[in-house]
Design brief:
With about 240 residues, the chain is mainly beta. Helix content is about 10%, strand content about 55%. The chain has 2 helices and 14 strands; from the N terminus they run H-E-E-E-E-E-E-E-E-H-E-E-E-E-E-E. The protein has a 14-stranded antiparallel beta sheet. A hairpin with a 7-residue loop joins strand 11 and strand 12.
């Protein structure tokens, strides 16, 4: 019985990481990019836990045409940090580097992915380096919502993205389901609701809400797993 809480907490950090992969926000566009630098705060409520956790998103120019995004969240259980370095090709943030670092409950897990000349090199804790081909431009776990935001702004309703991670490239599909009004920091906000399309028998479902009146900022993400419902909300509009 003494080990139940650590196991549950470790599972929470894994779930939090999955949610964090889907969260970004953006502000008015720069001439050369669909987004400009930002620093945005969210709150995560994970199933089975009575408290919420703050998550921070930062985006800044990294030199030349490259941008760097960092996503981080921490509490007494540990810390998760993800970093993406990319350049824009139209509405696609094309990844050059993705890094992941998680600490908690005496465990450390790290991963790095580098993509150059259509080749990806992946290094993960307790794994041998792995290489695979990237035939088409691909984004990553934390930059993909920037692509969604850009595509929604131009009127797309069915969106397909190539998403690279430490294991390979996955084709992910998203679809607009409709419009809803959400309350953000006491204010009613009109949003577009987007669902990630998965296999019919998948135990995981993901929805994202973007605010057209606020440059399609991501204001909410909901993920349902076999362990329950997890929600991430924007604290306040930019």
């Amino acid at each position: 019985m003494a080990n139940a809480c650590p196991r549950r907490a470790f599972r929470w950090t894994r779930t939090a990481s999955l949610l964090l992969a889907g969260l970004l926000a953006a502000t008015p566009a720069l001439a050369e990019s669909p987004v400009e630098s930002f620093n945005t705060q969210y709150r995560l409520k994970a199933a089975g836990f009575p408290f919420t956790v703050g998550a921070q998103r930062t985006l800044a120019k990294a030199g030349g045409e490259r941008w760097e995004m960092e996503v981080s969240a921490s509490n007494f259980l540990g810390e998760i940090r993800e970093t993406s370095v990319f350049t824009w090709q139209g509405c696609l943030p094309v990844t050059h580097y993705y890094g992941y670092h998680r600490e908690g409950l005496g465990r450390v897990k790290a991963a790095e992915l580098r993509i150059a000349d259509k080749q990806a090199t992946s290094e993960r804790t307790e794994h041998e380096p792995y290489r695979y081909a990237v035939d088409q431009p691909a984004t990553d776990k934390i930059a993909l919502t920037l692509a969604l935001q850009c595509r929604l702004a131009r009127g797309d309703r069915d969106i397909t993205l190539n998403v690279a991670d430490e294991r390979g490239v996955e084709t992910q599909r998203f679809q607009v389901e409709g419009r809803e009004t959400l309350e953000i920091d006491g204010e009613d906000v009109a949003t577009v609701k987007v669902r990630r399309l998965r296999e019919a028998d998948s135990e995981r479902q993901t929805w994202l809400w973007f605010a057209p009146g606020n440059d399609y900022t991501l204001v909410q993400l909901v993920q349902e797993n076999d362990d329950g419902r997890h929600v991430m909300n924007l604290e306040s509009l930019p």
